[in-house]
Design goal:
The chain is an all-beta fold. The chain has no helices and 57 strands.
């Protein structure tokens, strides 16, 4: 059991009402929902953060489980009256929260009672004694031997906050049964539960756990009774079959009552759910009006054809009756909130809406609707869009009746050609400058008025100013062709370069690979705006001179420094051509068709032949010559790694190689040193970092690749002495 302490504020009145229902989720698992209502204008305790819900054996009253259930989110009930003709006072406020939990309850012979108790009620309640000290018990039952896992009835709506006095009440407080069981309704006794004591016992504001059945009753203060809890002529009563509350109340104040919904199956009473609730009985404002959204309210409804989607913004109206004013038929009615109706003919119709027909406070609204097809005005022009053409004729199009009114606005104020015209066909239009000019057409036909705005676009005449004559270059020659073209809309091109190649690029780059004289042709055209096609031709516009063609040979291309001579031969020399041979080592020969050159160092050398012909066209050829060093090897026969600074290390010295690997073994063939670095020497220890090797003879094995890419292997013996 959890002990909870309460302050004096926690004992203050605040409770409006509550109820318990449940749903079977299968396999004897029940989802229990407790709803507690609170007066949010009260200074009393807030809705409890945790509710203690007790599960009892109905027969013995023994507590089976004390469920501690956290509160769900708080919510407000709208101050409705249950009567759409009436508006509740603005200062009423009721909030509620649900406490939902699950429990497994196997069938038992006596069934289960589920209960919650809380104190206290508002002191201002009129029809019971000492209401501020009276608490409530909210309870329901799970039937005995409930092998079918019953669902309790579920309330359809939250209860209304207000019961309006001096009005005929007919308010639904109904429920639905998920199992399809029969339901009956009645006003029933109020159950007592909780009190103003301390701690968490049965007389505390929030008993934890609550008391088990049976429960004490709260007596009504005369003249109120269980079946007539609120005075009236007639007093408040409940229809047992429909669940509607009826009466004509002649009092004001706060009254509490209990409503029971009984669940029957095959003539047997299974269960009863209860709603214990406080009602505010007060005068209400009879506020209701019908209101049709007219053509003036929504101009999109004007002149849209014969089918109209009617809308209404009525207040406090729940039922509707429309008459669409077609006097030729009697079926032009609807009871929908927002109906759609198609008229048989054009004309003016007086549409009527009755809000809440048959009610004493029913209201009627009548609005005229003009049913005509949409004008859908447009215009089109004839004439050229180029600045040097124009002379536009504007022709309106659309649906209008004879004797319609037209209005044209051409351009904008400040334009040189701005003017207005009221004729159906305005005079021809010509603009001084290129640009975009709005044209507005206004048409009034019958009661329909529509405006269409579009624009005329005036464009400059396309131009192409590029000059492609006298272009000279050397083979291979690359040129960027700029047409220097302009137009106000997209331009398209076709180029013919005279050598069989074409292009659609706006500014193409073209390379001539052969010498010659080439004709240039270019077409440019536009497809919109000022539509035009321009053509230019330049016969012999591009002259491409040949480049020098003088083959040369270098032999041999791979030599050694011991035999460093190469021969260079140049052939095919045309008169007037000049050329130079650059050997790559700063040696240059001029106009030498044959020469022998000796290199003085090893390495890679690029031999260049540079030539220029009588047209000033240059050309360069190159050839790589490789001068290799000669492969040699020198190796000591002994070394003395004794620390005296002389002859401390051993390595063979090699020239003229690319790859290198040295391996040294002792007399038993064991490797004592190896390296791929030609500059790394052996210091007489194992792998140059281990223990010292003993004195004696060691065999070395050298593997290299010379500059001719040939493998070379050498072996020898070195004597280690200390």
């Amino acid at each position: 059991m959890v002990a909870i302490g309460f302050s004096q504020q926690a004992e203050a009145a605040h409770l409006v009402g509550g109820q318990i229902t449940y749903v079977c989720t299968g396999s004897n698992n029940y989802s229990i929902a407790l709803t507690v209502y609170r007066d949010c204008n009260s200074q009393g305790a807030q809705l409890d953060a945790v509710a203690s819900i007790g599960v009892f054996n109905t027969v013995t009253g023994a507590l089976i489980s004390n469920l501690q259930v956290p509160r769900g989110p708080k919510q407000n009930i709208q101050p409705n009256t249950g009567n759409p003709c009436l508006t509740a006072p603005p200062n009423l406020c009721t909030e509620f929260a649900q406490y939902i939990t699950s429990i497994n309850l196997p069938p038992i012979a006596g069934g289960y009672t589920i209960s919650f108790q809380r104190c206290c009620r508002n002191n201002t309640i009129t029809n019971i004694y000492a209401p501020g000290s009276k608490g409530s018990t909210f309870t329901t039952n799970i039937p005995p031997n409930d092998s079918t896992c019953n669902n309790s009835p579920q309330w359809d709506n939250d209860p209304p906050i207000v019961l309006c006095n001096m009005e005929n009440l007919n308010i639904p407080i109904t429920a639905t049964d998920l199992d399809g069981d029969s339901l009956s309704y009645r006003l029933c006794n109020l159950y007592l539960g909780g009190g103003q004591g301390g701690g968490s016992n049965l007389t505390s504001p929030a008993p934890n756990p609550p008391a088990g059945p049976p429960y004490g009753l709260i007596a009504y203060k005369p003249p109120s009774t269980t079946v007539n809890p609120i005075p009236g002529i007639p007093g408040l009563s409940m229809d047992p079959n429909t669940g509607y509350v009826n009466g004509f109340l002649n009092v004001t104040g706060q009254y509490v009552l209990a409503i029971c919904v009984q669940e029957w199956r095959n003539g047997v009473l299974l269960n009863t759910i209860r709603r214990d609730y406080q009602f505010n009985v007060t005068p209400c404002d009879p506020t209701l009006w019908a209101d049709i959204v007219s053509e003036e309210d929504d101009t999109t409804q004007l002149c849209i054809g014969s089918t109209i989607n009617f809308q209404q913004t009525s207040f406090n109206v729940t039922s509707f009756h429309w008459d669409f004013g077609d006097t030729t038929i009697t079926t032009d009615t609807s009871n929908l909130s927002s109906p759609t109706y198609t008229f048989n003919d054009t004309g003016t119709y007086h549409v009527m809406l009755i809000g809440n027909p048959g009610w004493s406070c029913a209201d009627t609204d009548i609005v005229s609707f003009h049913i005509y097809p949409p004008i859908n005005p447009t215009w089109f022009e004839s004439g050229g869009n180029c600045l040097d053409e124009q002379g536009f004729l504007l022709t309106p199009q659309g649906n209008w009746y004879p004797n319609s009114t037209f209005g044209w606005t051409i351009g904008t104020p400040g334009d040189a050609n701005y003017y207005t015209d009221s004729n159906m066909y305005p005079p021809p239009v010509t603009f001084v400058n290129p640009g975009t000019y709005p044209i507005k057409l206004y048409v009034k036909s019958k009661t329909c008025e529509e405006v269409y705005i579009d624009s005329l676009y005036i464009f400059n005449r396309p131009e192409m100013l590029g000059d492609f004559a006298g272009i000279v270059g050397c083979q291979p020659y690359t040129h960027v062709f700029d047409p220097q073209a302009s137009a106000d809309t997209d331009m398209h091109f076709l180029w013919d370069f005279g050598d069989g190649d074409t292009s659609h690029a706006a500014m193409p780059t073209h390379t001539y690979t052969q010498p010659g004289l080439y004709d240039i042709k270019v077409w440019m055209w536009t497809l919109d705006g000022c539509v035009d096609t321009l053509y230019q031709s330049f016969p012999g516009g591009v002259l491409v001179h040949p480049r020098p063609v003088m083959p040369f040979t270098v032999s041999p291309t791979t030599i050694s420094i011991y035999q460093p001579d190469v021969e260079v031969t140049t052939t095919g020399i045309d008169p007037g051509e000049q050329f130079w041979i650059h050997m790559g080592d700063s040696s240059i020969y001029n106009q030498s068709s044959y020469l022998i050159h000796a290199y003085k160092d090893t390495g890679n050398f690029y031999v260049l032949r540079i030539a220029v012909n009588q047209f000033g066209c240059w050309d360069t050829l190159s050839q790589l010559v490789r001068v290799d060093p000669v492969f040699n090897i020198w190796s000591p026969t002994a070394f003395t790694p004794n620390g005296d600074g002389n002859n401390e290390q051993f390595r063979p010295v090699v020239t003229g190689f690319t790859n290198y690997r040295l391996v040294i073994t002792n007399r038993w063939g064991q490797v004592v040193f190896q390296s791929n670095d030609a500059l790394e020497a052996w210091n007489g220890t194992e792998q140059n970092q281990g223990k010292e090797c003993p004195e004696g003879a060691y065999t070395w094995h050298l593997f290299v690749i010379d500059y001719g890419d040939s493998p070379v292997e050498n072996n020898g013996v070195v004597l280690l002495m200390r």
